[in-house]
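Q: My labmate handed me this sequence with no annotations at all. I'd like to see what the chain might look like in three dimensions before we decide whether it's worth expressing. Could you predict it?
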Amino acid sequence: IERFRNPALPVIGTDHDWVFDRVSGVLGVFHQEWQRCDLRTAEMLKHALNAFLAAQVTFGNEIGNLCESVNVDGRRLAELLRREPRVGPQAMLSPGLGFSGGTLARDTRTLLRIARLHGVPTPFLNGLWEANQQQLLLPVRRLERTLGSLQGRRIAVWGLTYKPGTSTLRRSASLTIIAELLKRGASVRAYDPRADVSELAEADFEVREDAISPCDEADALLVVTGWPEFREQDFAEVARRMKGNIVFDCNNVLSPYGLAAHGLRWHGIGVGRRTDEYED
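A: Here is what I predict for the chain of 280 residues:
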């Protein structure tokens, strides 16, 4: 209801006056001023908006990677950038994983298909897509850099859905990461509080019903989806059960100090601090 009352982009796409009059009349109960455009423009508007948001995410991630290389906290940099009016307070610039799910990725790929169909060069969108695919697999490369070969390694994964607050697994970053871990010879045990387990009936990895048991003898814990409840886990028990002590926090949702108190070494994305700086 709130989205009808305060739509971010109040646009109605139609090629007919009578359709606009009827639809705007109905929706006018919630919001008075609706913009009209033709159907083709409305379709392109949706694709362009989501590709623009995807570009923000990709820019934030790439700047975050650069920040990390020069010991700058990319999260703080994003906060400060949002204070610039031309950037805006809602800009999606926090460093982390690449975009996934069914909206940003789908519409970016749609624009790329349109470009191929009409022979239009799109070097920016091509680069955006490639950069995002690289970012999605960043945790795998970092784990390999930390642990060496992943062959025979046991990796615990928290979070399977493409974002918190949903049961949707389609185009999930976690599944992409897990597939790459398996490809490199690791075994995976995973947990998600709301994932539709029926969609994982033929998965090549174990899905557990709790967050702690996947950590048994794990060489590393990978926290992919930023479910709030992951912050409340018993990390003393996690540390006791794990074989290794690496926790790779893909969206920087955990407390590095809280983990360090239990001997766990936190690794984030775009943060620019060595893990040992959080230890006493």
